[in-house]
Amino acid sequence: MSILDKLEKKQILLSDGAWGTFLQATGLKPGECPELWNVSRRGDVIKIAESYIEAGSDIIETNSFGGSIFKLSQYGLGDRVYELNKAAAEISREAAGKDRHVAGSVGPTGKMLIMGDVTEEELYNAFKEQSIALEAGGADIIIIETMSAIDEAALAVRAARENTHCVIVTMTFDGDPLSGYHTMMGVSPAEMVVAMKEAGADIVGSNCGNGIENMIGIVKEIRNTDKDIPVMIQANAGVPEFIDGKTVFRESPELMASFVPALIEAGANIIGGCCGTTPKHIIAIRNRIKN
Description:
46% of the residues lie in helices and 17% in strands. It is α/β, with parallel strands linked by helices. It has one domain: TIM Barrel, CATH 3.20.20.330. The strands form three sheets. It has an eight-stranded parallel β-sheet with strand order 1-12-9-8-5-4-3-2. A two-stranded antiparallel ribbon has the order 6-7. It has a two-stranded antiparallel sheet with strand order 10-11. Helix 7 (120-136) links the parallel strand 3 and strand 4. The radius of gyration is 17 Å and the shape is globular.
């Protein structure tokens, strides 16, 4: 069954947790390219994927968040986009087997149309190249995540929609229920839903930036705009704190899991974790979903 078939049957699905902070804990050094690990340290990458599958994730992402030509070129790897993204998807597909879903991760390019440092065609082609490579490696979903600008996100969704299959898009919001939620580019959850549906997204939601409690208000805003579109939430393990030269995430697995019932009641259909979350967080969330 496709992920959309499962969601149509009102299943609550479990995604995976953090990749970036997990890679850092495994030994990724500052200034090192995470996507290069797909070929240089494949065994370490597949262990991360396998740990989330063992934790019960229905959806496993890929180590390709910064896999666009713009990001890889910063490491002198702009000519290896297809290779590194395909390898990322192959790793997650091997871990997932045939029964779990693989979501090819596509992050922001770091370029801004509003500043004139890139054209729409260049952005579209970058997202197209990455999406095609991820699908070739075994991804059955493309997830465009941590977005803040409508124009970039819409181009990414269109490129994935026109060249692959199921498309998820998540944005990162700041704020609270009283002041409202907005991305750093001023986009509200309601504006995101309308624009991303028009671009062709199958699933919308939010990741990063917030602990899971704040995600409840974001889901409510999405549901006030659209009652039916599936919603995916991947929260951090709390707001990051910088202590003694290290980034610390304080929310325990049990604390995160305690908010799962309210998140589901608000209208979330897919729940997982982002920065600071571990397989232990995913296990705790899984147990709450089952209950």
